[in-house]
UniProtKB/TrEMBL annotation:
Biological source species: Halosimplex pelagicum
Protein location: Cell membrane
NCBIfam families named among the record's database cross-references: PRK12599.1-3
Record's keyword annotation contains S-adenosyl-L-methionine: no
Any one GO molecular function term: sodium:proton antiporter activity
Pfam families xrefs: MrpF_PhaF
Entries under InterPro entries matching the protein: MrpF/PhaF-like
Keywords: Cell membrane, Membrane, Transmembrane, Transmembrane helix, Transport
GO cellular-component term (any): plasma membrane
Domain of life: Archaea
Membrane topology designation: Multi-pass membrane protein
Protein name per its UniProtKB record: Cation:proton antiporter
Transmembrane residue ranges: 6-24, 36-57, 63-85
Keyword Glycoprotein: no
Lineage: Archaea, Methanobacteriati, Methanobacteriota, Stenosarchaea group, Halobacteria
Length: 91
């Protein structure tokens, strides 16, 4: 493994740790907007980790997976926001 691969894997590990911290906010968030933002952060971090791992192992096909996951993460955020507003809550 080269130095660049190690740096990419280290950055991926840092984003995984950030996602674990955000999981606390998902479980113990005091309000619904906190939980929605935390879910969005975790989803974005997953996309970043997939992209970093794809670059580290030299597998460009994984970038397609990251792109699809990013689109699904965006749609999930929109759906949760729409559901919350229709229920009478305000984001």
């Amino acid at each position: 493994m080269t130095f660049v691969d190690n740096v990419l894997l280290g950055a991926a590990a840092a984003f995984v740790f950030t996602s674990l911290v955000a999981l606390y906010r998902i479980v113990d968030g005091p309000t619904m907007p906190d939980r929605v933002i935390a879910v969005n952060v975790v989803g974005s971090n997953v996309v970043i980790v997939i992209a970093l791992l794809a670059a580290a192992i030299g597998e460009p096909g994984a970038l397609d997976i990251a792109l699809v996951y990013a689109l699904l993460n965006f749609l999930l955020s929109i759906a949760i926001s729409k559901f919350t507003v229709e229920r009478g809550g305000v984001l």
